[in-house]
Design brief:
single chain, 82% helix, mainly alpha
Length: 139
């Protein structure tokens, strides 16, 4: 599979599941209704799609230069932590504004979402690689 197509399929599939999970989590954690939670989740997914494409392009460029090939649990964990850390820095101000709350409360929402997404990102990437095989950068 061409690398660009693989990245697009990965990002769209990941964000679709992420929208569903984030909407439910935001609805449960905040006073926001379903519509506001869904719209924030969709906005966040759009931002995350852009970040995902950029981050994974950079990560795979780095990965290609590594002498150890494959994706160990440590490499997958580093990938997930770096991706989610960058995303929260981008989304924190938007979350506070969207939910009309403080940065601190938005951070607590983001912290819960980060925890959920760290597990989800690790598991999703593992399953994605099992279904479609490892990308050329990891072979």
């Amino acid at each position: 599979m061409r690398p660009a197509l693989r990245k697009i399929i990965y990002a769209v599939a990941f964000e679709t599941g992420g929208i569903l999970m984030a909407t439910a989590a935001l609805r449960l954690m905040s006073d926001a209704g379903s519509g506001k939670s869904l719209s924030l989740a969709v906005f966040s997914a759009a931002v995350a799609l852009s970040w995902s494409f950029l981050f994974n392009t950079l990560f795979e460029a780095w990965e290609t230069r590594q002498t150890t090939k494959g994706r160990s649990p440590l490499r997958r964990t580093v990938h997930a932590v770096l991706f989610e850390g960058g995303l929260v820095l981008i989304l924190l101000p938007a979350t506070a504004w969207w939910l009309s709350t403080t940065l601190w409360l938005a951070f607590t929402y983001e912290a819960v979402l980060i925890a959920l997404f760290l597990v989800y990102a690790w598991a999703f990437t593992w399953a994605f690689d099992k279904v479609l095989g490892l990308p050329n950068s990891a072979k």
